[in-house]
User: Which sequence fits this backbone?
């Protein structure tokens, strides 16, 4: 079946895919189902929808992995970051040519977080099956209702993608959606210990030796959680890890005094924790992460002006503010402009620069101004 689906996808240059997975209490999400839709003139509506079960069936995913990695095959998803990340890891493939219908909807005034069922109803006038979103997808056997729900998640994706492409093309925003979908195609759920260390609470304030111990504990925790397929916090929560790095206990009674340390970790892996602390005290400390940036008082009025300009652009384009620029990006843009530099942020790149980024730089350079006119906020200059 997988080879046939891959062949049809390659011949048509398109496939739609959705997944069902379980992430609760696991180290990484478990792929439970993959639902694929491909063009098939012999099927009802010209679309064939199949459900692949990696838990119950022996699947040869190599043909589909190759199709997903083929830049000539458009892969239609909805809110597909997790789908792409899970498939990249479990099927060991890249997904190069993604079209995300939720992303596309954000450029057409439907809302940045528009759900699949809602969007199908609004765009196609179809009522998809519902009611099983929070089911235990890792349990077998699955019911007919569960399978119906899973199949519906992919059955309308190709038609939805077609309709949105037509609307985007008419609005002159198709390339915007394709550009934004590139970020979805890069999604990954691989865990980088260095990045995890940098996100620890107050990691920037740790002393050098404390940082070394914290890094060792991060790496130990990742190995244990992966081996046991358990969630990372259930092994050692972040705030407890930082506390251990600061106090560096060397005896079991020191662990017993650690507030928030899971009982199972203390009783079953206590010596492993103590050994990791001892190793960390001898290793080279990683660099301190940068302190979170804070808006300088003199920048606050400029950030407020930048936000006003972005909101004006959002009103004029019906593209959500949060899709155009975050406050953190505007803060970095203002800080860089004050230094005579241009920040490397999304609002100054690609379609965002076209919508508002170029105007924002002109505003911060003093070459544009904002005024309140009869139709609201206006840009002069």
Assistant:
């Amino acid at each position: 079946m997988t080879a046939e689906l891959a062949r049809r996808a390659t011949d048509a240059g398109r496939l739609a895919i959705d997944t069902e997975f379980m992430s609760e209490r696991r180290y990484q999400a478990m792929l439970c189902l993959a639902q694929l839709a491909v063009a098939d003139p012999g099927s009802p509506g010209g679309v064939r929808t199949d459900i692949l079960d990696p838990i119950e069936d022996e699947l040869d995913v190599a043909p589909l992995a190759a199709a997903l990695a083929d830049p000539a095959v458009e892969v239609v998803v909805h809110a597909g970051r997790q789908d792409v990340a899970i498939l990249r890891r479990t099927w060991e493939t890249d997904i190069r040519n993604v079209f995300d219908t939720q992303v596309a909807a954000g450029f057409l005034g439907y809302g940045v977080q528009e759900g699949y069922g809602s969007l199908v109803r609004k765009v196609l006038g179809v009522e998809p099956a519902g009611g099983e979103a929070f089911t235990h997808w890792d349990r077998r056997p699955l019911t007919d209702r569960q399978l119906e729900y899973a199949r519906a998640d992919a059955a309308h994706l190709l038609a939805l993608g077609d309709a949105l492409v037509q609307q985007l093309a008419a609005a002159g925003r198709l390339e915007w959606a394709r550009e934004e979908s590139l970020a979805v195609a890069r999604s990954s759920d691989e865990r980088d210990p260095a990045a995890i260390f940098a996100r620890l609470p107050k990691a920037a304030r740790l002393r050098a030796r404390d940082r070394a111990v914290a890094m060792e504990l991060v790496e130990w925790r990742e190995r244990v959680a992966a081996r046991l397929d358990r969630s990372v916090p259930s092994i050692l929560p972040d705030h407890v890890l930082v506390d251990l790095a600061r106090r560096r206990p060397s005896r079991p009674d020191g662990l017993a005094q650690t507030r928030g340390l899971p009982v199972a970790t203390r009783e079953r892996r206590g010596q492993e924790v103590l050994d990791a602390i001892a190793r960390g005290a001898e290793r080279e400390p990683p660099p301190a992460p940068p302190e979170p940036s804070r808006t300088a008082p003199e920048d606050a009025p400029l950030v407020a002006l930048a936000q006003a300009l972005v909101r004006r652009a959002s009103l004029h384009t019906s593209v959500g503010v949060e899709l155009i620029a975050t406050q953190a990006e505007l803060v970095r843009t203002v800080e860089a402009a004050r230094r005579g530099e241009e920040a490397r942020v999304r609002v100054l790149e690609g379609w965002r620069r076209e919508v508002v980024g170029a105007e924002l730089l002109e505003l911060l350079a003093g070459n544009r101004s904002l005024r309140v006119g009869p139709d609201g906020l206006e840009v002069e200059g």
The mean pLDDT is 94.
